[in-house]
Amino acid sequence: MSAAAADTIVLKNGRRIVASNVTEDGDRVRYETSAGSMSIPKSIVARIDRDGLRYASGSSAASEPPVTAPHVDPVRGYADIARLVIHDNAIDFGYIAQLETDARSHAPLAIEKVAAAHYATAQFLVSKGDTPSAIDHYREALSFAPDSLPLLLNLAVLYLHQSQFTTALEPLERARRMAPDSPDVAKLTGWAYYGANKMDLAVAEWHRAEKLRPDAEVERALEKAERDKAEEESYGEGETAHFDLKYNGSATPDLARGIMRVLEDDFRDLESQLNFTPPDSIGVILYTGQSFADITRAPRWVGALNDGRMRIPVQGLTAVTPELARVLKHELTHSFIGQKTHSRAPTWLQEGVAQYMEGRRSTGTAGALLNASAQGELRALASLEGSWMGLDGGDASLAYAWSLAVVESIIQTGGIGDITRLLDNIATAPDTEQALRETLHTDYGDLQQQALTYLHQQDVR
Ligand SMILES: [Zn+2]
Fold it and tell me: Where are the chain's structural domains?
């Protein structure tokens, strides 16, 4: 494939995704990466830069302010000062300088006057379209009258119009201290959070604004923010030949791409090791830690889960760590075995092979397993065929270690080919032990004895 021109998708949160073939498709933006095709909701995209050109993303509505600025009463003394500061369509800087000199006396009236003068200047500059200079004058005015609500609100509105959402929060926080029950403060703070892509906070502020003073405009903005919030809860998607990825909330597109790449490599490896290509595309869902526990309702010892789809917690990660890579290989192995055996593989074999493929070995656990065996605490494989979700943490870790040892002993005796033939037979045999007899000419009793013998060889105490 020839090198396509790279586009840059700039997200509202500042993250940049360099990709090729960026297209807009309904309410999503799709793009190609070396790991496959990905898509994200248009609502989180600020713009798409193509070959140095800037395209606004989607409809122009995306960049339109969600609400308009409220009417703000002018500062005290404004009317008298304005015509002295602004005349002949120009700013009288000499007059402002004079007022500033007067204000050094700290006389309250002189301070009020100079604040009003900067306020009038800022308003004039806004009317001329010079927002940066207007901001400077509002800040000057605030240095004289730091608690002035009109100054704080007007400054915030200018920042909001300039898409400086986080900066806008600073005057708004001060305004809230001055006027805790101001619906305007809540309305503008909601706008700032909305622009900063913090939907939860935007929704909370606009709810507050609605409670303080019903406003049709805020109501509409609130409805839209709640829709965006719901959409972003199912944040992104990715697709390759073999995988169908969904990721939510704080999982980043970069991480998602990294995961797809690792999974494709793992896929090829497992394909040759297990002599099988899963016909169905494999679902992968990335979770932040909390949502994983909420949605899967798995016991605390469960790190990741595979219930037909790979459910992987990735809280706080921005790249594929060695630990995450092991989890991915482990869960992908479950998907292979699930499809190869039509979900008939016993749990001990599933977990044994998955751990083996992720690179785990029994060297460190052999001693503990032999001890448990001597105490009669090692479970029979027949009792480890079903779900392990009812096991407590200690029983579960013993069950994992024991299953791995059994699988290692099978591979040591007959190679990985014995595992793939066993899996094939499990897909069709009436039960696991029947498949064991057909494949390995052994039963559970013999297999367990073989695994214990293997563990004695591994025990390096
Ligand atoms: Zn597992």
Answer: 1-63, 78-231, 235-337, 341-458
Residues 6+ apart with CB under 8 A from 257: 33, 35, 38, 238
Q: How far apart are CA 346 and CA 418, in angstroms?
A: 16
Selecting from 3.40.50.10490, 1.20.1250.20, 2.30.30.100, 1.10.150.20, what CATH number does the domain 1-63 have? Answer: 2.30.30.100
Ranges of the chain whose pLDDT falls below 50: 1-4, 52-63
| N-term to C-term CA, the chain | 55
23 Cα–ligand 1 center, Å: 38
Tell me which H or E stretch contains 215.
none
Q: How far is the CA of 332 from the centre of ligand 1 (A)?
A: 9
313 Cα to the center of ligand 1, angstroms:
14
**Cα–ligand 1 centroid distance for 354 (angstroms):** 6
**pLDDT tens column, 320-333:** 888 889 999 999 99
The burial of 418, by beta-carbon neighbours within 10 Å (0-12 exposed, 13-18 middle, 19 or more buried), is given as: middle
Task: Render pLDDT for 222-265 as a digit per residue (tens, 0 to 9).
Answer: 988 887 666 555 556 777 888 988 886 555 778 888 899 999 99
Against a cut of 0.70, is the pTM above it?
no
- One CATH from 1.10.390.10, 3.90.180.10, 3.40.50.1100, 3.10.50.40 for 235-337: 1.10.390.10
Assigned CATH topology for domain 78-231: 1.25.40
Ligand 1 centroid to residue 415 C-alpha, Å: 21
Cα 249 to averaged position of ligand 1 atoms, centre (Å): 25
The Å distance, Cα 400 to ligand 1 centre, comes to: 8
How far is the centre of ligand 1, averaged over its atoms, from the C-alpha of 261 (Å)? 21
